[in-house]
Automatic annotation (TrEMBL):
PANTHER family: AB HYDROLASE SUPERFAMILY PROTEIN YCLE (PTHR43798:SF31), MONOACYLGLYCEROL LIPASE (PTHR43798). It comes from the Bacteria. Residues 21-272 form the AB hydrolase-1 domain. Gene3D superfamilies: alpha/beta hydrolase (3.40.50.1820). InterPro entries: AB_hydrolase_1 (IPR000073), AB_hydrolase_fold (IPR029058), AB_hydrolase_sf (IPR050266), Epox_hydrolase-like (IPR000639). GO terms for cellular component: membrane. Pfam families: Abhydrolase_1. One of its GO terms (molecular function) is hydrolase activity. Keywords: Hydrolase. This is Alpha/beta fold hydrolase.
Length: 302
C-alpha cells in the first residue's frame, strides 16, 4: 500500500502491472479500494492498474480543500503521471468517472460503469423510506442524530456493525435476498469496509464533510460523453439504482449495457472473475473504437 500527495490531501493507492491504456479503479461509496482486489491483480497482466481510496475513505484523509471527487481523480492521475486512462467506477465511483470524462474527455479512453450513481440526482421517496426501515431503524433515532451532527456515543462500535450489516444486506445482497446470498469472503469484506467507514464518520474526530457537487450535474450532460462506455447492472440491486443504470446506459451515446443475474450492488466483489472477464474484453474492444467527437466542440474547418 502506498500514499501520494495530491494538493493538500494524501491519498492511499496501489498500482500494479504495465501497458496502455492505464486503468483507474474507483470504488463505491460504501466501500474502499479493497473491493477491487481481483481486478487489480488480473487486469495488471495487460495494463497499468491503479486503485485508490476516495477522499474520506480507507487510507485517504477527509480534510483539505473541499472539491468534487472527479477533480481528486484527475489530480491523482496528474500526480501519478497518467496522461490518459480507462476509468472503471462502481456506484458513486461510476459518477465520478463520468464527471472526469466530461471535464477532460481527452484523458479518458473508456468508461466501465458498474451499478452507477449520478451525483446530485435525488433518490425516490420509496427508496428513502425503505432505507429508513431496513437500515437506519437498526439504531435509536437519538443516537443517529448525534452521529449526523458530528458527535459520537459509547455505542459507536455496536451501532456501526448493526448499520453496516443491514445496509450490506439491503443493497449489496439486494432487497430480494439476504446476506447468505453473498459469497462468504465478499460478505465479510463488504461489511468490514462499510463498518470501518461508519466508525470513522461517527468517531467525532472529523467534522461532517459537505459533498461538493459538480456544476452542471453529470446527469444533465450524459449525451456529451464521448468515450466508449459499458454499463454493468446487477439484477438484484435496489430497483432505484437499476433505474439509474438504465438512465446512464440510455443517455450516453453508443453505451452498451450488460445485466447480471443473481448480482447486487458490488458486482466486482460478488462475482470477481466474471466481472473481470467482462472488463478485460471491454477494454480490448474499446481500444479499437475511435473516440467520438465532443458534440460541444465546433467542427474543424474543411
Amino acid at each position: 500500500m502506498a500514499r501520494i500527495l495530491c494538493g493538500d490531501t494524501e491519498f492511499g493507492y496501489d498500482e500494479a502491472g504495465g501497458g496502455e491504456p492505464a486503468v483507474v479503479l474507483i470504488h463505491a461509496g460504501l466501500a474502499d479500494r479493497r473491493m477491487w482486489a481481483h481486478q487489480l491483480r488480473s487486469l495488471a497482466a495487460d495494463h497499468r492498474v491503479i486503485r485508490y481510496d476516495c477522499r474520506g475513505h480507507g487510507e485517504t484523509a477527509a480534510g483539505g480543500e473541499p472539491r468534487p471527487h472527479h477533480e481528486d481523480l484527475l489530480a491523482l492521475m496528474d500526480a501519478l503521471e497518467v496522461p490518459r486512462a480507462a476509468l472503471i467506477g462502481c456506484s458513486m465511483g461510476g459518477s465520478y468517472a463520468v464527471e472526469a470524462a466530461l471535464a477532460a474527455p481527452d484523458r479518458v479512453t473508456a468508461l466501465a460503469l458498474i451499478s452507477p450513481g449520478l451525483s446530485g440526482r435525488p433518490w425516490p421517496e420509496d427508496m428513502l423510506l425503505e432505507a429508513a426501515e431496513r437500515v437506519h431503524a437498526r439504531i435509536p433515532v437519538e443516537r443517529r442524530e448525534v452521529y449526523r451532527a458530528g458527535g459520537t456515543t459509547e455505542h459507536l462500535l455496536v451501532d456501526a456493525l448493526a448499520t453496516a450489516e443491514a445496509h450490506i444486506e439491503w443493497m449489496v445482497a439486494g432487497p430480494r435476498r439476504d446476506l447468505s446470498a453473498l459469497p462468504h469472503e465478499a460478505r465479510e469484506l463488504a461489511v468490514q469496509m462499510y463498518r470501518e467507514h461508519l466508525e470513522r464518520l461517527w468517531s467525532g474526530e472529523e467534522p461532517p464533510r459537505e459533498e461538493v457537487l459538480p456544476d452542471p450535474l453529470p446527469g444533465t450532460r450524459l449525451d456529451r460523453v464521448v468515450a466508449p462506455t459499458l454499463v454493468i447492472n446487477g439484477l438484484d440491486d435496489v430497483p432505484a439504482v437499476q433505474e439509474v443504470a438504465a438512465e446512464v446506459a440510455a443517455g450516453i451515446p453508443g453505451a452498451r449495457r450488460i445485466d447480471l443475474p443473481d448480482t447486487g450492488h458490488l458486482a466486482p466483489l460478488e462475482h470477481p472473475a466474471e466481472v473481470t472477464d467482462i472488463l478485460r474484453a471491454f477494454l480490448a474492444s474499446a481500444s479499437t473504437v475511435p473516440t467520438r467527437e465532443d458534440p460541444g466542440t465546433p467542427a474543424a474547418p474543411a
